[in-house]
Amino acid sequence: MSERPIDARHEMKRGLWWMGGATVAMRVLDAGGSLLVLAFLTRSEVGLAALAWSVSVVLESVSGLGVGYVIVRQRDLTHVELSGLFWFSTLLGVAMVSVVAAVGPYLAVFYADWRIYPMMMVAAAKLIFVGAALVPLQVLTRDLQFRVSGTVQTLATLGESLTKVVLVVLGFGAWGLVISNLARGVFLCLALWRLAPFRPLLRAADASVRNAIRFGLRVSASGTIYQLYRNMDNLLIGRVLGTSVLGIYQTAFQLGMTPLEIVVQLVNRVQFPIYSALRAKPAELAQAFNRSARALLLFLGPVAALLCFASPDILSFIGGGRWLPAVPLVQVLVWASLFRGISQLLPQLYIATGHPKYAVVDSLVTGATLVTGFVIALAFAPAGRGAMWVAWVWLFSYPVPLLAHYVMVRRSAPISVRDFISSLAKPALGIAALSLLLGLGSALRPLLGSSLVSLALLLALTFAGHALYLRHVLHLRLADLLPRKAKAE
Length: 489
Description:
By secondary structure, this protein is mainly alpha-helical.
């Protein structure tokens, strides 16, 4: 059975439109809930919750052992094979909870705080629901059902945000953050059961499923290493500097890195099935990749610039200003996220084209560079500057993995470095111009006398400046970002 031809440009626009709308909705819900509850939480409570869920996030990367990529890449899997993968990933989630139960007491002793153990167990329970959601969610992605996938994930985020706000306002403290993280997994499964067509059969994994898992193992190794170094800063800061400093750092990371991380995940989620479908068409694959890089900067740039200059206004509203020490960290992390975003585009390309070993190499190089930097920063930073030095590590470490990508991409895909850089030149110039505009706008803050007025001014300058740049420099309109009807065959 031959697959229908794919219009990569149309599918990317359609995916970015539906998944982009869902992502914006999710981010607004999540950011709104997170910022609201900061007024009811202490720095130590935020840090304690960050330690608890960091362990489960690392293990979540093991969920399914990479079979999600297999589902998207091997489009001919039968319903019986998908059912085997469903039960495998669900039972793997149960196994991961057992791992947390075994190692949790040692971690509680390491951090000298036994409150961490029950919190880790609750956070880890999410892994069962994540495992159960993996196959139906990836089937939607494989079939380019972006509207349903976006709706499901938005509903899960809405459930998580409501749970978080209600529990924290009622006085649950750090427990409110941990339980809401579990609630996301529950709501995700409920939404998939209602909206997704996949229903598993009672079938065990057979030989073909085991072959798929062997491929997925190489992919999951990359993801596990990524999540390990992605959360190592939290684990090290919590141990060396304490949960109060970790609370400040985590708040800065949530504001400075996470919104941009969501955009990267969006672009990758939309592009991976497109890369997979085009892997036998080198010229179209290269064009699709360069378009995704360009789209990434067009999305990321304005957000990074706005968060850099508006973070004092945003954090001044919360908790009587007790989160303002996070501002300098935010202003470093937002620019680190741009390098990080570009770097994270390439592993999806390696996996889609059948070279998962390069994604593993990327994770090892990036992880080794970052973790070494974290350790050095915390060992030698002056008193009171440890968290700031860790933020600088995020910014200055990415040239090393980007150099590794330069070598690997030439061996795995028909990507011209010259064309790639050319695709980023005009968006990068736009980011620089917008940053200059916002810098001038933020200089007016003392004259405006109100954080709310200052924030409104910076928002207006961001939207107006970026819209003008799109229209008059890149010659793009809003309609150019929307999907067009596919031509009839």
